[in-house]
């Protein structure tokens, strides 16, 4: 049994689609579970004009009846409101109007490699699908995975840890779900109020200087049972799957598990999480440098995945490029764009982590109905004497 998903859709086409396969039957869902995450993804200081046009909401067209999953594929559709302004340029069918081609690939975007690979003369044929608009569909799919995980006691959260030169102070090791309560109230989704203010200022300053900004976020999954994933083969190592899933988000250039790259600088005696046991708690750790993963398996401590985003490649003061029709030097395409999407990146990161963890639960515990999954999970917790 696997939890799988796919998406379809172009940024300014009629809309986006996500299909999620492998959810058990009987799982309770509410439209608000999906739409709340879609709205969270649209927030964040540094967004551009497009977010005033879109108000993302999912229309579920299969796999759910009267608020419960049927065990069949769940399809959800998200309309692109902006399509109303692009009907000629992005119509699936031929139009009478003359539609100008785009010939100015942006450094850092999929534009140049995409037209070379697919044999296009129009960069738009690539950029429309490469656009991070697609992440709305991932977040819709991720919301379903989150509902499944929530039914098994798992909660997935995220926060922004850096925007350009501004870094949030290190978080405490005893982070809990409750600490994330107010995170969406910060305009940059940062847990530290002072760092949040400084990040907003940084975005304002850089935006004035026609710059875009990158940064880092951290996704934390609480309540994960030990033993998801496996050490026995490379494909089953859950850290590899999580890293691949988070790296696949547009603009990602780095992924870390737990303390990630920082662990490379630590001494062995300070890098690992010592093991303790008590009657009341069973096995436990007092630190979580490893980010809840050892040997490609979950340890039962919070799963922590960091993502690093590069600055967005669409710039209001464009970089040097080449006109792919004339081969002459030219400034790269200049389009309406966001200046910073790291806060949204964290929400997309939650979705990807939830989809990977959801799949790991499906693989390990199987079951056709959600009650089967719960029963298998409970039996496993009893066998390993898991008391958390
Ligand atoms: C994007 C460019 C902007 C973003 C878009 C991603 O769109 P537009 O060119 O229409 O202004 O707003 O992101 C979204 C629409 C979204 O929903 O996240 C790009 O080029 O990647």
Task: Write a structural description.
This protein is α+β, with helices and mostly antiparallel strands and 388 residues long. The chain has one domain: Chorismate synthase, AroC fold, CATH 3.60.150.10. 30% of the residues lie in helices and 20% in strands. It has ten helices and 17 strands. The strands form six sheets. Strands 8-7-9-15-10 form a five-stranded antiparallel β-sheet. Strands 1-2-6-3 form a four-stranded antiparallel β-sheet, covered by helices on one side. A two-stranded antiparallel sheet has the order 4-5. α1 (31-42) packs across α5 (135-150), α1 (31-42) packs antiparallel against α9 (342-365) and α5 (135-150) packs across α9. The longest helix has 24 residues, at 342-365. It is globular and about 75 Å long. The mean pLDDT is 97. Bound molecules: ligand EPS. Ligand EPS is lined by residues 11, 48, 50, 54, 82, 131-133, 136, 314, 335-338. Residues 11, 48, 50, 54, 82, 131-133, 136, 314, 335-338 line the site of ligand EPS.
Please provide a brief summary of the model:
The protein is 30% helix and 20% strand.
Q: Mind telling me the CATH superfamily name?
A: Chorismate synthase AroC
Give me the side-by-side strand order of the main sheet.
Answer: 8-7-9-15-10
CATH class: Alpha Beta
> Helical stretch count?
10
Distance between the termini: 26 Å
Q: How would you describe the shape?
A: globular
Beta-strand segment tally: 17
Radius of gyration: 22 Å
Class derived from helix and strand content? alpha+beta
Please trace the helix and strand order, writing H or E for each element: EEHHEEEEHHHEEHEHEHEEEEEEEHH
- Main sheet properties: 5 strands, antiparallel
Question: Which molecules are bound besides the chains?
Answer: ligand EPS
Model regions low in confidence, pLDDT < 50 over at least 5 residues: none
Task: Write the CATH fold name.
Answer: Chorismate synthase, AroC fold
- Proper CATH architecture: 4-Layer Sandwich
Beta-strand level of the residues, as a percent range? 15-25%
Helix content: 25-40%
Average of per-residue pLDDT values: 97
Number of domains: 1
């Amino acid at each position: 049994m696997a939890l799988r998903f796919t998406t379809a859709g172009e940024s300014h086409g009629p809309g986006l689609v996500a299909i999620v396969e492998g959810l058990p039957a009987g799982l309770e869902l509410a439209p608000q579970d999906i739409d709340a995450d879609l709205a969270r993804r649209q927030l964040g200081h540094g967004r551009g004009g497009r977010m005033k046009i879109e108000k993302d909401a999912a229309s579920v067209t299969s796999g759910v009846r009267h608020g419960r999953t049927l065990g069949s594929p769940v399809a959800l559709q998200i309309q692109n409101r902006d399509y109303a302004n692009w009907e000629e340029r992005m119509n699936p069918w031929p139009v009478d109007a003359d539609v100008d081609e785009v010939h100015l690939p942006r450094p850092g975007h999929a534009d140049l490699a995409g037209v070379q690979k697919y044999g296009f003369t129009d960069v738009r044929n690539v950029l429309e699908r490469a656009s991070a608009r697609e992440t709305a569909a991932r977040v819709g799919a991720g919301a379903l995975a989150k509902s499944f995980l929530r039914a098994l006691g798992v909660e997935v959260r995220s926060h922004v840890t850096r925007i350009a030169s501004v870094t949030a102070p290190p978080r405490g090791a005893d982070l809990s779900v409750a600490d994330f309560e107010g995170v969406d109230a910060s305009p940059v989704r940062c847990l530290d109020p002072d760092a949040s203010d400084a990040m907003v200022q940084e975005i304002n300053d850089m935006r004035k200087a026609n710059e875009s900004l990158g940064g880092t976020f951290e996704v934390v999954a609480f309540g994960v049972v030990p033993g998801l994933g496996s050490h026995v083969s490379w494909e089953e190592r859950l850290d590899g799957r999580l890293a691949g899933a988070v790296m696949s988000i547009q603009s990602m250039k780095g992924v870390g598990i737990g303390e990630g790259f920082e662990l490379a600088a630590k001494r062995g005696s300070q890098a690992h999480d010592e093991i303790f046991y008590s009657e009341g708690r069973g096995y436990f750790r007092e630190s979580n440098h490893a980010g809840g993963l050892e040997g490609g398996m979950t340890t039962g401590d919070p799963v922590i995945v960091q993502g690093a985003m590069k600055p967005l490649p669409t710039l209001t003061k464009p970089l040097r490029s080449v006109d792919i029709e004339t081969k002459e030097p030219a400034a790269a395409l200049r389009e309406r764009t966001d200046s910073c999407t790291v806060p949204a990146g964290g929400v997309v990161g939650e979705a990807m982590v939830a989809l990977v963890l959801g799949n790991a639960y499906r693989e390990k515990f199987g079951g056709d109905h959600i009650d089967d999954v719960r029963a298998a999970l409970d039996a496993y917790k009893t066998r390993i004497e898991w008391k958390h």
